Amino acid sequence: QVTLVQSGGGSVQSGGSLKLSCVVSGGAVSLYSMAWFRQGPGKEREGVAGLGYVGNTKYADSVKSRFTISRDNAKNALYLHMNSLKPEDTAMYYCAAAPQVLQSTLFESSEYDSWGQGTQITVSS
User: Fold this and answer.
1) pLDDT reported for residue 117
2) Tens-digit pLDDT profile for residues 20-73
3) Beta-sheet pairing, 18-25 with 77-82
4) Distances in Å between the alpha carbon of 94 and those of 112, 125?
5) What's the angle, vertex CA 119, arms to CA 55 and CA 2, rounded to 5?
6) Cβ(12)–Cβ(87) under 8 Å?
7) What is the pLDDT, as a whole number, of residue 61?
8) Which of 36, 67, 100, 122 would suit a FRET pair with 8, their CA atoms being 20 to 30 Å apart?
9) CA angle centred on 63, ends 20 and 96, rounded to 5°
10) Could you tell me where the beta strands, DSSP code E, fall in the chain?
11) Pairing, β 57-59 against β 46-51
12) Alpha-carbon span 80 to 19, nearest angstrom
């Protein structure tokens, strides 16, 4: 397991942009599969964006072309750039890490053994 500390997020109007950060300690981000999940009010946790340890990416259909997942190996951090935010993006967002996750299971929360503390994103219309 590694320790994940999230920052960023907050409140924004519809159409705005935000960036989430997730700093990794106890391991190199380049060696882990990483993902961002979110859980909206009354909803189940869902995968939003995933980044495999070899650099492959995966996005939920609802965020494709609006969200971008990336990592900075030098800073040992994962990021989620979110553009054109919508009220339905309102949720608690979590970063997650696991040693190696297949592309097909990047959005399965059970694959991950390390989680960030969560960051609230609120998008108003």
Assistant:
1) 98
2) 999 999 999 999 999 999 999 899 999 999 999 899 999 999 999 999 999 999
3) antiparallel
4) 11, 23
5) 50
6) no
7) 98
8) 100
9) 45
10) 3-8, 10-13, 18-25, 33-39, 46-51, 57-59, 67-72, 77-82, 91-98, 114-115, 119-124
11) antiparallel
12) 6
The CA-CA-CA angle for residues 45, 50, 51, to 5°, reads: 155
Cα 27 to Cα 3: distance, rounded to the nearest angstrom: 8
Contacts of 44 (CB under 8 A, 6+ apart): none
Owner of token pair 């397991």: 1
Q: Is the pLDDT of residue 100 over 90?
A: no
Query: At residue 124, what are phi and psi to the nearest 5 degrees?
Result: -100, 150
